[in-house]
Structure formats: C-alpha cells, structure tokens
Design goal:
Elements: H1 7-11, H2 29-46, H3 59-85, H4 91-98, H5 102-110, H6 114-117, H7 122-156, H8 158-167, H9 177-191, H10 197-210, H11 217-234, H12 236-248, H13 250-269, H14 278-297, H15 304-311, H16 313-319, H17 321-334, H18 340-364
Helix pairs in contact: 3-4, 3-5, 3-14, 3-15, 3-17, 3-18, 5-11, 5-14, 7-8, 7-9, 9-11, 10-11, 12-13, 12-14, 13-14, 16-18, 17-18
Length: 396
Amino acid sequence: MVNSQSPKQALSLAEPPYQGERAGNGPDLGNRVKGNETQFCHDRIMNGVHQMPAGGRVDWVDYAKGFCIIFVVMMHSTLGVEAVTGREGWMHAVVEFARPFRMPDFFLISGLFLAQVINRDWRTYLDRKVVHFVYFYLLWMTIQFAFKAPGIAAEFGALEVARLYLLSFIDPFGTLWFIYLLPIFFVAVKLTRRAPWPVIWLIGAAMEMSQLHTGWMVPDEFAARFVYFYTGYIAARYVFALAEDAQDNPLLALGCLLVWAVFNGVMVREGLASLPGFSLGMGLIGAAAIVAISALLSLSPLFKPLRYCGRNSIVIYLAFFLPMAASRTVLLKTGVITDIGTISAIVTITGVVGALAIFWAGRAAGAHFLFERPDRFKLVPDKPKATPQSAMQPAE
C-alpha cells in the first residue's frame, strides 16, 4: 500500500503522521510519542511516502554510517601507529576533532529504525537484534584471537591465551565492543518500551554524565552510549526532518556546519568537550551535524564510494583490524615513509579498502559465512523477498 500523502505533508512537525486519542482517553504521552515514531517509520519506509532507493535503504543514512566507520578506522589506525612509535602526527588532531561525535552518531543511527521492529515477537526480535550480532562477534572474536594468540603465548604463556579468550565472552575483545554492546541496547529498549520515554532518556543522560569508569567495557560503554542510541529511537522523525531540511536549504546548512566545526574545534582544543554535561551536548550536536553533512553528501554522485562503505559498515568494522595491523607493520619496519601522520593516513585507507577486499575475496571464494549469517544460526528463517536486495543489511 502506498500512502497518497506528499512527503512534505508526512514530515510536517505541526501535523504528526499519527493522530492519537485525546489526552485522558487514550495512551499516555510516552506511548503516544512512540506511536508517532512507529507510524512515522512505517509511512516513511514501508509505505513509500518518501521515495526509497532500490534495496529499501535511505541514502543519507548509508553516508552517515560510511562517515562514521571511516572515522572509527582512522582512530584505531592513528592511535595504533602513535602507540608503537611514541610520537603524534598531524592525523592526531583529526582524531581528536571527531572524538565528541564519532561514536554518538554511530549509536544514534543504529537506533534510528528501531521503532519499525520494536513490537515484533521476542523470538523474531532476538533473532534479528541479538543472535545476528552474537554470531558475528563470536566468529570474528575467534578470528582476531587466532592472529593475536601466538604473540600473547610467546610473551605470557598458553594459560594467558586461554584466560583472555574466555574473558572475551564477558568483556569485549579488541575492536569488537560495538557489536557486543548493540544487542544489549536492543534488549534494554524493548524491555523498557512501555516506560515513559522522558524517564528513560533522563536516566541515559545521567549515566552518560556520570562518566562511569569501572574498568569493564560493558558497563562503562553502556553508560556512555545508551542515551545516543535511545535518542535515535525516540527522535527518529526529527532526525529525518533535519536531513531533509539540510537538503532543501544547502547554503544555510553549510553555514550552520561551519559554525559547528569552529565550535567543536574550540571545545576540543580547550579540553571542554569531554567534561560532564558538555560531552552529552557535544555528542548530540555533533551527531546532528553528521546527519546534515551526510544529507548534503548524498546530493552528489561524487561521494558514492562513501555510501558503499556505509552499506557495508559492518564488513569494514569486522575485518579492518587485519589490513590495518599488516600495513602498520610494513610501513614502520621498512621506514620508507617517516611522517607519522602520513603513515596513519595510509594505514587508515588500507584498513578500509583491505576490509572490503577481504569481503570481496570471501564472497568470490564462497565463504559467505564470514559476513552473512547462515540459516542454521537463525531462530527465525528469512521471509522470501519480492525484489532482490543486498545480502548485507548492517543496521537493520
């Protein structure tokens, strides 16, 4: 069914898509807001109110994910090179500039379409939102461990290898903490979906501002990131409206982005961006800025490679560690390039392109299990699709 409303009508903030019952006779505010978000996503994505590209994806969302995954690889690549050499390069400033918004935007985008699926039965929900990521975490944690185990064994012994491997089941290993934490967020939101949303959001904000530091990845990152994921869930319609406004008013959007970039840079330079309260505001503003940037980038075909990275963000996230580490070792040992910043940039590019190369090679060799979950690891079989779609849907 295709809704006959125009896109502008559906996006009007003054006339939300969902017309709930009058106050006092129907759902409370929290449930009405969630109803709005669910209906909005349904109209926007499923009923074609806003024209969707082939494959059922939103173009600027892929650009945003591409933007963020490249910054994630850049962070690991740059800090890794600097840790080995004991020196900082010009890329360090770029990594620091992105710190306030890099992961907040990634989690906000991850929660953006949750209203579409939050009311699924638990079995289907757990299959799509928990088992899916557990499969990839266990597989790639083991793959990463296989590469790192010989070095650990040589330095600390076989018992330490076994201890660290078992520890990885409860404390995320290496770079994989994001897909370890994401299923926890999905379950947390479904369990609390009937609670008043302002209460949950305020709890999330308080956790972020507490800057919890227990030394364990899961509680610390849960406290630091949940509010952004939940914001993506409850504020989806406003995020979409922001993206469309940026596309309709590109010059105004560019002006606002310039102001934001200066503000973000000053806050980072002065050491204020990481302070309690400031970090939450900077994360939300920065995530909004990335949405606007991505919406503008999606207007030009010149940036399609970035969109491809976004479509395959989970591929890059899972596999970049190997080409990143290999290129870093080669560049530092050969000494052909001595500038730390340049080395970091090359390692970043190699990490992204190398991960995609592993994906292409695995697909060509028939090793689909590396990036596609086999049917035997599914609680609920996939429904037949009416039209062909990409096998990878990283942020469903």
